[in-house]
Amino acid sequence: MPDNQPNHHWKTLDRDLGRIATLEQATQYVARPMVGMGLSVLFVGIVGIAAAVLIGGSTNTAIIVAAAVFGAYMALNIGANDVANNMGPAVGAKALTMGGAIVIAAICESAGALLAGGDVVSTISKGIIAPESVSTTEVFIWAMMAALISSALWVNLATWVGAPVSTTHSVVGGVMGAGIAAAGFSAVNWPNMGAIAASWVISPVLGGAIAAAFLAFIKAFIIYQPDKLAAARRWVPVLMGIMAGTFATYLALKGLKKIISVDSGTALLVGLIVGVAVVLISRPYIARKSAGLENRNKSLKVLFGLPLVFSAALLSFAHGANDVANAVGPLAAIVHAAEFGEFAGVVNIPNWVMIIGAFGISFGLIFFGPKLIRMVGSQITKLNPMRAFCVALSAAITVIIASWLGLPVSSTHIAVGAVFGVGFFREWHAERRARKSSSARAPAVRIAAEERRRRKLVRRSHFLTIVAAWVITVPAAALMSGLIYLALHAIFV
């Protein structure tokens, strides 16, 4: 007994240390959101102080500081929600770790916002309300403040629920609701609102269809070929060229306004030249990368890894260049109206406003982004590098098509719609192959309805939650904005 006693003590100590380690891990897990929340509050406070110092002692300093604080809060929410659409597929496909995705997205979003963000933004959200319908500058300021607060609150709520929503549509709803509360229903440009409502359906369906078409192409011409690697050496460089050409066209059209302005024809020519160059450059890379690999699907995932990382980075840069300006539009409008005593449909965005947007998005992504990244990347449908590449390519192509058609689409709707498109195509393709294999055997295998539902490759609960969030984004943001405006008007006007 005495000889065994030390061993007994050591075992007890091991168990106690194990419990302590588990407790520490649990404490860190619970405390992590609190750390993010604390640092977010610190960031918002620093923005408020910096805005007060920058503006000085003007009569409207308090209004501008309040707008800057809510603008920072809005930017944090964009980082927590919107950026997941660009990085989610790459993380879900295991081409990027969560940490790597956050670092790349933070750098590319900030670079897109600061280097290629538009000089001019339509602060009335693409003509949602007419500036002349607003009676005074003071009413306009409080309407834009209400739009900013309501859109930020709605995106925050959607992130907490776990639904990727459009921040642009949230701003549109906020501006519309505040405009109705301030000037009545006649102030709203209803044809433009009808176009936005149509984009709720058109953009995700178009994104899903294009993603499914590319996945069908990859399956037919690469995955189901007898020599998969030979097919990959032939077609992967072509797909990389299409991706590079598409992004070059997209960035030339939409993302490089501050550096150079080009027309559609020139942008297409730039995209064609870049696409051909990438095809020629990537052929030896793919040949070298595929050397020694086995002729199976797992080898193909290696070949799509690097293109997927580049596509995710370029999507983030393009998002920063375009969507950040829309998100800080109400803040820019408030600053312009407060400084000059007038309001207009189009104003310049001050550099310090873009810096708030860029840094806020980065911090929001770092503190709160992983939740939505996991949702988009792995909880809707299972993604591998080939499927995730189709999602990224579809997102860029769909945005270009929508721009040519003049549709005010959402990058969120397109990217998530592409994920759904890939998932639903996988379901259709799996059932088709099952029917073919069962028809070749006798008797045919009959599967119970419950089992068929269990085998679905797209999680229906997430699908319904996301679609419902999309449908109610504009009306919910509008209702919140109208109520907030009425409260602000009653208190300050």
How would you summarize what this structure contains?
Helices cover 80% and strands 1% of the residues. The chain is an all-alpha fold and 493 residues long.
Structure write-up:
This protein is mainly alpha-helical. The chain has one domain (36-492). It has helices at residues 4-55, 61-81, 84-92, 98-116, 137-161, 167-183, 190-223, 228-255, 264-290, 297-327, 329-340, 351-379, 385-405, 411-439, 449-454, 460-492; strands at 120-122, 346-348. Strands 1-2 form a two-stranded antiparallel ribbon. Helix 2 runs parallel beside helix 12, helix 5 runs antiparallel to helix 11 (329-340) and helix 6 (167-183) packs parallel to helix 16.
Count of DSSP strands: 2
Q: Main β-sheet: number of strands, strand sense, barrel status? A: 2 strands, antiparallel
How many independent structural domains? 1
Q: Please bin the fraction of helical residues.
A: over 70%
Span between termini:
85 Å
Percentage beta strand: under 5%
Order of helices and strands: HHHHEHHHHHHHEHHHHH
Sum up the overall morphology in one term.
Answer: elongated
Please tag this protein with its features.
493 residues, mainly alpha, two-stranded antiparallel sheet, 16 helices, 1% strand
Task: List the SSEs and their pairings.
Blueprint: H1 4-55, H2 61-81, H3 84-92, H4 98-116, E1 120-122, H5 137-161, H6 167-183, H7 190-223, H8 228-255, H9 264-290, H10 297-327, H11 329-340, E2 346-348, H12 351-379, H13 385-405, H14 411-439, H15 449-454, H16 460-492
Antiparallel strand pairs: 1-2
Helix pairs in contact: 1-2, 1-12, 2-5, 2-11, 2-12, 3-4, 3-10, 3-12, 3-13, 4-10, 4-12, 5-6, 5-11, 5-16, 6-16, 7-8, 7-13, 7-14, 8-9, 8-10, 8-13, 10-12, 10-13, 13-14
